[in-house]
Design goal:
By secondary structure, the protein is α/β, with parallel strands linked by helices. The chain has helices at residues 15-28, 65-71, 119-122, 129-144, 165-180, 207-216, 301-319, 360-376, 384-401, and strands spanning 7-11, 33-38, 42-44, 62-64, 75-78, 83-85, 90-93, 96-99, 102-105, 109-111, 123-125, 151-157, 187-193, 220-222, 227-231, 234-237, 242-244, 247-250, 254-256, 287-289, 332-337, 342-347, 354-357. Bound molecules: flavin-adenine dinucleotide (FAD).
């Protein structure tokens, strides 16, 4: 490839980074050098981490990034990024510098459990793969009935947890799993969240339906409960309340994974971007940001994919001196897995709330078969017939179910 073509660097190899890289390759072909820089050589399909306590193995939801990169003509660098020197257009990764003509930042968010004293030590963290695997041993213990003592499993979302969806999933999945094992009556389940309404990131329109679902399953749930500290077996809240638990499962507070002091960010380090194009609001037109690394309030894989597609389209159009064909579409959907069924949530608010879907097993199997195949076809994840079909289906549902 000629070195005269622009060099586009993608920082991060998760949903946003990989999608942006594949989207740019698809649009620009050989007219750009594309380098992917990530500190891990595995792509993890994070939405399926919630299956780990119920038997799914980590290697079933991982892809080898260098192999994916090679298959798509991307240069892969495994390195830990520290920051950038914007005026020199250089990414800094330890001793190494990576020059760029355009940069797409997709380094995601980093858990900061230490904001709540005791959380890291006392909770099984939804952010931490080994914790989810250890949780499986706890559930197995309950299944064998090795401990006759009634158990209380609490699911916690403290303040500054931007995406609580997996916590709700894990509570519902645990309920179903315990029912299947015939031990549900031995275990009390509680969900506690600092959110003003259940699954608030997607709007308050889901609250009543989720409250009903939790209640139907006998899961005691509290909202607006700001936990300030955790001690062994006890949670303390801001109003002076104490809440007992035997096993605690939590989503953490999050901050940006990489600090970008020379770029505009919010108080948690998330990058401020133009909604339509993903361009960082730094007055230049060479920096883009997508996914959890941005200040966009919904931190979801599907959002990262859509932002990455919009950024790839905008950047490619700029290089090809044409008008972008589309911009970022902030509507989204989320399937809340419960093992025995899934609930489909459509956003933005104002649309129909939650639709039950009988898709538990099918969803898992489709992923195992579908994800590697999808990447092998040289397509971005959020493109092509499969996603067009999904989008059309969601659009039809939205239309039919609108109140
Ligand atoms: C348990 C769980 C369940 C979830 N369930 C869902 C769901 O059902 N639906 C949904 O839509 N979303 C879900 N999410 C959220 C979703 O996974 C994230 O929104 C998505 O991963 C964001 O993609 P991203 O590319 O922005 O960041 P990430 O996927 O986090 O990728 C970040 C990339 O940057 C790299 N990186 C980070 N720091 C550095 C550094 N310093 N140097 C170099 N590289 C670095 C990482 O290695 C990684 O490659 C879930 C998340 C979790 C944790």
């Amino acid at each position: 490839m000629p070195s005269s073509v622009p060099h586009i660097v993608i920082a991060g190899g998760g949903f946003g980074g990989l999608e942006a890289a594949l989207g740019l390759r698809q649009r620009l072909g050989e007219a750009a050098r594309i380098t992917l820089v990530a500190d891990r050589d595995r792509f993890v399909f994070k939405p399926y981490l919630t299956y780990l306590p119920f038997g799914l193995a980590l290697d079933q939801i991982e892809l080898d990034l260098p192999a994916v990169a090679e298959a798509h003509g991307l240069h892969f660098i495994r390195a830990r990024i520290d920051g950038l020197v914007p005026e020199q257009r250089r990414l800094q990764a330890g001793e190494r510098t990576v020059p760029y003509d355009a940069l797409v930042i997709a380094t995601g968010a980093r858990p900061r459990p230490e904001e709540i004293p005791g959380l890291r030590e006392q909770a099984y963290g939804l952010w931490h793969e080994p914790d989810l695997q250890r949780l499986r041993a706890v559930l197995d213990g309950l299944q064998r009935g090795s401990d006759e003592r009634p158990r209380h499993i609490a699911f916690l979302a403290p303040p500054a947890s931007p995406w609580t969806g997996p916590l709700y999933e894990l509570a519902l999945m645990t309920d179903t799993w315990l029912t299947w094992q015939g031990v549900r009556n031995r275990v009390e389940l509680t969900l506690m969240t600092a959110e003003p309404s259940f699954l608030a990131a997607l709007g308050d329109h889901l609250h009543a339906r989720i409250a009903h679902e939790l209640d139907r399953r006998g899961i005691t749930a509290y909202r607006g409960l700001a936990v300030t500290a955790v001690e062994p077996g006890v949670l303390h809240d801001a109003a002076g309340g104490r809440h007992r638990f035997d096993v605690l499962v939590a989503v953490p507070p999050y901050v940006a994974a990489v600090p970008w002091p020379t770029l505009p960010t919010d108080d948690r380090g998330f990058l401020r971007t133009r909604l339509a194009s993903g361009q960082v609001e730094d007055g230049t037109d060479v920096h883009y940001a997508v996914g959890d690394a941005t200040a966009f309030p919904v931190k979801q894989a599907i959002v990262a994919l859509r932002q990455a597609d919009a950024a790839a389209e905008h950047l490619a159009a700029r290089l090809q001196r044409r008008t972008p064909a589309f911009s970022f579409d902030p509507s989204s959907f989320f399937t809340l897995e419960a093992l025995d069924e899934a609930l489909l949530a459509l956003t933005p608010p104002g649309d129909a709330p939650l639709v039950p879907l009988p898709v538990g097993q099918a969803r898992r199997q489709a992923l195992r078969a579908g994800l590697p195949w999808r990447l092998d076809t040289s397509n971005p994840l959020y493109a092509g017939l499969l996603w067009k079909g999904t989008r059309t289906g969601i659009g039809v549902l939205r239309h039919l179910l609108r109140p």
